[in-house]
Design brief:
It is built from 20 helices and 21 strands. It is α/β, with parallel strands linked by helices. The chain is elongated. The site of one magnesium ion has 4 residues, from loops.
Length: 567
């Protein structure tokens, strides 16, 4: 037993008398004479962090009659932490109630260290200390089992250094090793920065691995959207922007990245890596640093998306946007009572891009605030310009995006922009969709009240498509309901009646809201809205959204002195 560092113990737990062999005392690092033969004397030697574990195991053995065995640390007596394996079982005697437990204590410190070393060698790369292919495959398999590729979006990246062999030949093996270590460090940091841009909070951790020579791989087991993998690839490549300082010389490196998406590109770890490598070879052949997806359709959609995003940034800097205006018309008198400002992007190559295409991208990239402020600014200037040209103040409706609506101190900021550009908040209406209003309704009411206090009118846009609760509708200080075009379009499809529309109009009237029907294209639709008591409409029947110069003649012929909607 002594040679095996194995000690024995016997515990009479009814009288709390614990007898231990000399080897146990030796392992615990205390002289046998000073061990006071109680459970707590033993626990006193157990590392604080493991005491609970030991007590619980012994308690369970006592109550459930099972044996136990576990590893625990002991309080270091000479400064080095030691690990022991504790084993015990209940002694079943003739008496009806067991009262003793016996077991062994073995010092397994060296054994565990050897096992850890074996595990490390089998699963980690000795040079960079990153997981190796073996562990990486294992992690992918685990993530796949947890739903990656089915219920969860993930991505597998393989990165390889361009011209590594030549660099290694020039600088020698020692330098190359340092270089690979530095690359590993940068990639690790790049992953954590890339992640702040695209990561589901609380999701499984990312892992970076070294697959071989100059080949690294990363697994992101939980992304908000497949497109976000492009951001990660970009940040991995950006890790090579600055040269590496290795042993006194400055080395410039570039890399290529191949990406495979679990699910579409494979449902097995091994296959995903192989597909990512296939994609990688395609970029490497091109000879410059970039990334590539395994699936051709993903490449196309990412390229389109990245292109649009870059163009949008350029477009904002180059001021490629204009506002079109669509009249809102009083249903009985056919007079223009206001206009809705609709943004247009006049791209030199793409032509006129629809807001439906670029507003969502601008939202995601956080560019919408700049755009939205520009819209408010330019609508205010337009309002003033019309006034200066002798027209009365024309109410303008402006669409507010959800991100903008959530900006702190929104009301003050908008009011400032309006004032600085000669607009009048009492003649400006802000359109919000149901989705914007319904998320976090309590702070929404506060923001809406501040906007009202600043003088703005408020409208719910595209009403009927979201999930507005009628109770909230009454709590929100809303002036106008704009019935979504879908309901009006429904009428065109051979239906002469729409119970939903009748209900919406009836309810809106009961709540004393100004109701506008959107997307009116035919006389029949107009007639229906008129019969139901809808106050105003907007649609191609009267006019499409047009630039200010084309609107001017319409304003001159169809305007009467408007009363502000909030008055
Ligand atoms: P929205 O606010 O509901 O605007 C009405 C949309 O319906 C406009 O599309 C308009 O051109 C279209 N429309 C109007 N009458 C008719 C009709 O009779 N028939 C048909 N088929 N369509 C009609 P547009 O200009 O493409 O804008 C689409 C959406 O983009 C807008 O829907 C709005 O949600 C958003 N948007 C436009 N400008 C801005 C902006 O400055 N800021 C923000 N955040 N969103 C904007
Ligand atoms: Mg609108
Ligand atoms: Mg609308």
């Amino acid at each position: 037993q002594r040679i095996a560092h194995l000690g024995g113990w016997e515990w009479d737990f009814i009288h709390d008398r614990l007898e231990v062999s000399d080897t146990v005392c030796h392992i615990l690092g205390i002289p046998p004479a000073s061990f006071n033969q109680t459970q707590s004397a033993y626990l006193h030697c157990v590392h604080e962090g493991d005491r609970e574990l030991v007590v619980e195991a012994m308690r369970e053995a006592m109550t459930e009659g099972r044996g136990f065995d576990l590893d625990h640390r002991i309080m270091p007596t000479d400064g080095t932490e030691r690990i022991v394996h504790l084993q015990g079982e209940l002694l079943i005697e003739d008496s009806d109630r067991p009262q003793r437990m016996l077991g062994t204590v073995q010092d397994v410190t060296d054994q565990r260290a050897a096992e850890a070393k074996i595990y490390f060698l089998a699963n980690y790369d000795g040079l960079t200390h990153l997981p190796n292919r073996n562990l990486f495959l294992h992690r992918i398999t685990e993530a796949l089992a947890c739903g990656m590729g089915t219920s969860v979006i993930g991505a597998v990246f393989v990165l390889s250094l361009n011209r590594y062999q030549r660099i290694s030949d020039v600088y020698g093996p020692r330098c190359s090793d340092h270089l690979l270590q530095a690359v590993a460090g940068r990639l690790q940091r790049a992953l954590s920065t890339g992640l702040t841009a695209a990561h589901v909070p609380g999701a499984d951790p990312t892992i970076l691995a070294r697959l071989g020579q100059d080949q690294f791989s990363a697994l992101l087991p939980h992304l908000p959207a497949a497109e976000d993998s492009a951001k990660i690839a970009q940040s991995l490549l950006a890790a090579f922007d600055a040269p590496f300082a290795i042993d006194g010389s400055s080395v410039t490196l570039t890399a290529s990245v191949g990406i495979a998406l679990p699910g579409t590109d494979g449902t097995e770890a091994d296959l995903l890596i192989r597909h990512a490598v296939t994609a990688l070879t395609i970029v490497q052949d091109r000879g410059h640093s970039s990334y590539q997806y395994y699936s051709p359709s993903m490449n196309a959609s990412i390229a389109a998306r990245v292109g649009l995003e870059q163009d949008l940034r350029t477009g904002i800097a180059a001021n490629q946007f204009t506002l079109y205006y669509q009249p809102q018309v009083d249903i009985l008198s056919e007079r223009i009572i206001g206009v809705e400002a609709l943004i247009r992007w006049n791209h030199p190559g793409r032509g006129l891009v629809s807001p439906l295409e670029f507003i969502p991208v601008a939202e995601e990239e956080g560019l919408i605030i700049q755009l939205s402020e520009w819209v408010i600014k330019s609508a205010s200037q337009q309002q003033k310009a019309w006034c200066n040209s002798g027209l009365p103040l024309i109410p303008i409706s402006i669409n507010l995006s959800s991100l903008h609506f959530r900006q702190p101190n929104l009301a003050n900021q908008i009011r400032l922009i309006v004032h600085e550009n000669g607009g009048d908040p009492r003649y400006l209406e802000l359109e919000l969709t149901e989705g914007v209003l319904m998320t976090d309704a309590s702070t929404t009411v506060a923001t809406l009240n501040q906007l009202k206090d600043a003088g703005f009118s408020l409208a719910i846009d595209d009403f009927g498509t979201g999930y507005s609760s009628l109770a909230y509708l009454q709590r929100f200080p809303i002036d106008t309901l704009k019935i979504d075009r879908a309901f009006v379009t429904d009428l065109k499809l051979g239906k002469s009646d729409s119970p939903i529309m009748r209900a919406i109009i009836g309810m809106g009237r009961a709540l004393k809201l100004h109701i506008i029907g959107e997307g009116v294209e035919t006389r029949d639709q107009l007639a229906f809205l008129r019969r139901q008591g809808c106050a105003a409409y907007q649609g191609f029947l009267f006019s499409k959204p047009v630039p200010p110069d084309q609107l001017l003649p319409l304003l001159r012929s169809h305007l009467h002195s408007p009363i502000p909607k909030s008055a």
